[in-house]
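To: structure subgroup
Subject: Chain for Friday's discussion

All,

I'm putting the inputs and outputs inline so they're searchable in the archive.
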Amino acid sequence: MRKRIISILILCLLIPAVVIAGFFLAKGKQYYLVSLLVIAISILPFMLSLERKKLQLRELVIISSVIAISVASRAAFFYLPNIKPMCAILIIAAISFGAEFGFTCGALSMLLSNFIYGQGMWTPFQMLAMGVTVFVCALIFRTFRIKNRFILGIVSGILCFALYGIIVDLSSVFMMVSEYNLRSVLSIYASGFPFNIIHGLTTGICVTLFEPSVSEKLERIKQKYGLFGEK
């Protein structure tokens, strides 16, 4: 319980503070440095969640595989804005391997896939958004042991729409608004609403369709090879 509280504080408070501070202090120009800081900090809760102090090679293979599949899934739909199964893939993997695992893979996946889509001051916000969304989804599903595929899909879609959309659109607010007032901020969020809806629906549908079969296989692999503290 103590480790989980530390993880929540680091991932949901410290990293957002680093992203926002990095944006204003460096005026959005040092986004590579901020991105590397996000990755470095996000690894700490993941390591704390392990019962051992050292990662096994087989666990590194799983992490690399999940990130590679996530990046490929985003790249495959390059010409279809926000129809991306990446978030669903990461959520399904995090349900089996842990919420902290999900945050780390989510942040790294966004950073690496942006070498295809383009890096910029929005990258740390996208890393934070994907990491937090996957972390919260996995935390809810694992804590309450939710197994119903339709509930998983609905909750995943709603959280993807709300959390990912709010955090990513926040970067647009910082970049595009010179005078912060309710009207200008709401206009930014309103313009991103259709895209966030599509992203949320895509995530919810993919989780509903693929979670049962994929999770079954991941759990079998986890137990067979003793991954991430599983004995």
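Points worth raising on Friday:
The CA atoms of residues 94 and 111 lie 18 Å apart.
The mean pLDDT is 93.

D.
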